[in-house]
Amino acid sequence: MRITKKKRQITVSEQSRRPGCKNKKSRVLAAGCVLAVACLLTGCGEENVENALAYRKIGINAMAEEDYEAAIQNFQKALDQSKGQIRNLELDICMQKAEALYLNGQTEDAIAVCDAVLEYDGGYANAYYLRGNLYLRQKDSRKALEDYERAAKSAKMDYEVYIQLYENLNRAGMQQEGRGYLEEALKLKGKERYHLTNRGYIYYLMGNYEEAKGQLLLAVREKRKEGEDDKAELYLAQTAEKLGDEATAAEYYNAYAKDHADDSVVLEELGNIAMGKADYAGAYDYYQRGLEAASPVNEQSLRRGVIAALEQQYEFERAEDEMAQYVLDYPEDAQAAREYEFLKTRTAAASQPGSEQGEPEESDEQTQ
Q1: Which end of the chain, N or C, is less surrounded by CB atoms within 10 Å?
Q2: Rounded (5°) CA angle 231-233-236
Q3: Domains of the chain: total
Q4: In whole angstroms, what is the distance from residue 235 CA to residue 269 CA?
Q5: What distances in angstroms separate CA 305 from CA 32, 260, 291, 295, 299, one per listed residue?
């Protein structure tokens, strides 16, 4: 589980599943987690999965709203429903609680929860991964690398773990160590769409775009399994873009967008492609759809796209209105502030009797 406000959930591997109530191990885990902010209760009783899931959902919603105290409390209530019965659900909730503790500034408590989980299940990849993240935030690279290595060994066929280890280390300035995990992931065997998609993306991350294209072309030809939702078309579009193949990039961005109409990042890319083709009305539509998506992660760049598309359609008054709000919301964007002054001169000139709106070339440089 990545420690960010917008994160991907790592699927817990099946080998860490522990059905039923295991008295001895339950007591060990309970004792450790009582010391580590009371993660679980002792004693085997009747489970109440429905209540646990309800409290877990409330905790997740509180996390999304950045109310970490409420998230911690509700994750604990979810764990209290277990009455000591340790399953995959309880271990996952422990990880969510540990993340909430970290985001609430309680890093040591979060590490202690991971410690307690690993006392119960020494092969639980998520706990090693999360604890490694916490150590990395504390600048303890030695312990972080040790836990990442254990996470990779426990994850087995989970490409996402390797990719996230790479991304974390790359951001921390440890590019060589991160690349090593990508190389390890390439050793995983398999010819299904899942394997082809992930290998293609790994080649993309390594900058080997021709190999990435080959793997991803094979992936998109494979039928997607029911319930499977990968990003083969998206990765292929991004790879084609890197190779300068705009036609293929547009084709696969559109293919991906058909099944992911609310993906704001893809809609922005489609808007950029439309801008490059001078289809400014189409670009405006893509940017607007991106802004209408649920919690777009790229809202700022989408709003700049909307303004640029309006300018190119000579809609200077609307562009000025959009920019007026934009500069209030993003005062650090000095280039936008200069462009706002330029737009005001455009609209002022257009309002003069007998004036004609000129060509928009002057604003091109400003909108790049």
Answers
A1: C
A2: 105
A3: 2
A4: 12
A5: 52, 20, 10, 17, 10
Alpha-carbon span 197 to 215, nearest angstrom: 7
Give the mean model confidence (pLDDT) for residues 255-272: 88
Domain boundaries, position 71 = 1-152
Any idea of the CA torsion for 297, 303, 309, 310, to the nearest 10 degrees? Answer: 160
DSSP 115: H
Residue 56 lies in a domain: yes
Residue that has been written with the tokens 């084709």 in this structure: 251
Q: Say how many CA atoms lie within 13 Å of 241 toward its Cβ.
A: 18
Average pLDDT over residues 141-153: 93
d(Cα 156, Cα 153) in Å, to the nearest integer?
Answer: 6
Is 36 part of a structural domain of the chain? yes
Rounded-to-integer distance, Cα 198 and Cα 303, Å: 32
* 3-state helix vs strand vs coil in the chain, percent to 5: 70, 0, 30
Domain end marker among 152, 181, 204: 152
CB 102 within 8 A of CB 110: yes
- DSSP letter for 40, please: S
Output the pTM of the full model. Answer: 0.66
DSSP states of 57-106 as a string? Answer: HHHHHHHHTT-HHHHHHHHHHHHHTTTT---HHHHHHHHHHHHHHHHTT-
**Has residue 37 got a pLDDT over 60?**
no
**How confident is residue 38, by pLDDT bands cut at 50, 70 and 90?**
very low
Which pLDDT score is estimated for 352? 61
Cβ atoms of residues 132 and 142 within 8 Å: no
Q: Which of 260, 313, 259 is nearest to 285 (CA)?
A: 313
Question: What Rg do the C-alpha atoms of the chain give, in angstroms?
Answer: 25
> Mean pLDDT, the chain, as a whole number?
82
Say which amino acid occupies 290: G
DSSP, collapsed to helix, strand or coil, labels residue 313 as coil
